[in-house]
């Protein structure tokens, strides 16, 4: 597998990862909200950044720490989600900057973005596998030229 193919495969991996992260984010937010609702702060308990002062019990301190950890987990998932979306946008920008023909673009979307086999792509495009290999070669050359900087990248800046 070439560097260009690995670059394009990152789209599929990022897309899959976004699905998982959205689910994890929903679960983490729900746990955070449940935990925050369960923590009953006494009138003397005051939040000071991540530290608290006051006469809270050991159970109250443990609950507060758990809620803080859940909040940090939510933020970490949101950051990873943003990173994956940025990866997808970058790959799409590079592919757009490559100036692929319609069939080449269809091949790239089916093969790398939808993760279909060459045979499945050939069936979807109503062509032979030999034609798919030709489309693959020309598309990867164009995308590789953008990645290597030998082709203008003005549309690629993300």
Question: How is this fold's topology laid out?
Answer:
Elements lengths: L2 H36 L7 E3 L2 E3 L4 H40 L4 H12 L4 H8 L3 H20 L10
Antiparallel strand pairs: 1-2
Calculate Rg over CA atoms. 24 Å
Oligomer: single chain
How far apart are the termini?
A: 25 Å
Please state the overall shape, judged from the principal axes of the Cα atoms: elongated
- The secondary-structure class comes to mainly alpha
The ordered string of helix (H) and strand (E) elements is HEEHHHH
Overall mean pLDDT: 84
Strand order, sheet with most strands: 1-2
Beta strands, count: 2
Poorly predicted tracts of residues:
42-50, 154-158
Largest sheet: 2 strands, antiparallel
Number of helices: 5
Q: Provide the helix percentage.
A: over 70%
Work out the strand percent: under 5%
Could you write a compact summary of the structure shown?
The chain has 158 residues and is mostly helical.
Task: Kindly describe this structure.
With 158 residues, this protein is mainly alpha-helical. 73% of the residues lie in helices and 4% in strands. It has five helices and two strands, in the order H-E-E-H-H-H-H. It has helices at residues 3-38, 58-97, 102-113, 118-125, 129-148; strands spanning 46-48, 51-53. It has a two-stranded antiparallel sheet. Strand 1 (46-48) and strand 2 form a beta hairpin. Helix 3 crosses helix 4. The longest helix is centred in the middle third of the chain and has 40 residues, at 58-97. The chain is elongated. The relative contact order is 0.14.
């Amino acid at each position: 597998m070439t560097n260009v193919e690995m670059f394009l495969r990152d789209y599929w991996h990022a897309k899959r990862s976004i699905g998982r992260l959205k689910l994890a984010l929903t679960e983490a937010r729900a746990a955070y909200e449940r935990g925050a609702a369960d923590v009953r702060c006494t009138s003397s308990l005051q939040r000071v950044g991540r530290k608290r002062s006051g006469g809270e019990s050991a159970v109250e301190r443990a609950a507060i720490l758990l809620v803080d950890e859940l909040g940090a987990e939510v933020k970490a998932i949101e950051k990873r989600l943003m990173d994956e979306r940025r990866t997808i946008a970058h790959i799409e920008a590079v592919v757009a900057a490559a100036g692929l023909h319609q069939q080449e673009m269809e091949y790239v979307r089916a093969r790398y973005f939808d993760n279909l086999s060459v045979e499945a792509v050939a069936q979807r495009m109503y062509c032979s596998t030999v034609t798919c290999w030709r489309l693959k070669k020309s598309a990867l050359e164009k995308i590789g030229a953008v990645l290597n900087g030998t082709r203008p990248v003005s549309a690629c800046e993300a």
